Amino acid sequence: MANDHRLGILLISTTPPERLPELARLCEELGFDEIWLAEDYFFYGGFTGVGQALAATERIRVGLGVVSCVARHPAVAAMEIASLGRAFPGRFLSGIGHGVPAWVQQMGLAPRSPMRALEEAVTAIRTLLTTREPQTSEGTYFTLRDVALFHPPLANVPLYLGVIGEKGCELAGRIADGNVLSVLAPTEYVSWARSLGLRGMSQAGRSGSFSVPTFVLTAVDHDRARARTAVRQSLAFYLNAVGPTPLTGVIGINDMVAELIAAGGYEALLDGMPDDWVDVLAISGTPDEAAARIEQYWAAGADSVILSPQPAESAESQLKLIAGDVLPRLNR
Fold this sequence. Notes:
TIM Barrel, two-stranded antiparallel ribbon, 13 helices, globular, oxidoreductase, Luciferase-like_dom, oxidoreductase activity, acting on paired donors, with incorporation or reduction of molecular oxygen
């Protein structure tokens, strides 16, 4: 598959950590290009999970999307990133974000200005990864005093943000190599976020490529109705959890999302969401339909489409079905 048209799998947070190595090996054996893990609090540790997946495989790239910028001091995050980058050169992709507000608040770490905290953290991480001289800086949220990595990476480790708003997407272009896009992102949002990232790059005088790996809720089945039912349930869960956001605002459904949440949350969303929401917010249906939808995401600018198989209890069967019946249908 072309380097700018990759297909990956998200190993969701409910996956028991002891199963990550076998699932990572399966993804590699089936021919996927990437594996992504998310550090959702308080499931499995993101860096630990990535290390397990990398150690269990030989060629596949493994991404972390994303770790909260306030859950670890940037010097500690840089140390973790550098260690994985050295141990598995060219295979680790690291994402940094705000973190889900509710989880961050549970730890008493919510910053007054999440955007400033994120920019400070990522700037410090990149500096430590690329500079061998000890660094001293005093920021609003993070302090470095003569900090240098003893084992810096031997090659570049891509740093992505994981943000959804206009300012965040522009910031990704200014300070990062890309932006990891959340589930619920329609193709319209992918194009919008990528254009903002490129604008941020231009503002910062940066050149090169800008990556937008995109997580997408996915269910594939020769029984079209069964696949759409599985995705519909997941969409209702996520829409109820996050509410109206720029992800759904870009296609003009935020008012209806808010109305359904107010009318009864998950159940109201499950019963009341229009069928076309399944079409635009997910990948679902037959292998032919799934392949066509993946190519739409690529065409919108998602260089890497990261499938999140639904339902979770049939992850292996979904992986095998996608590899056997969807991959051969894609234009490579």
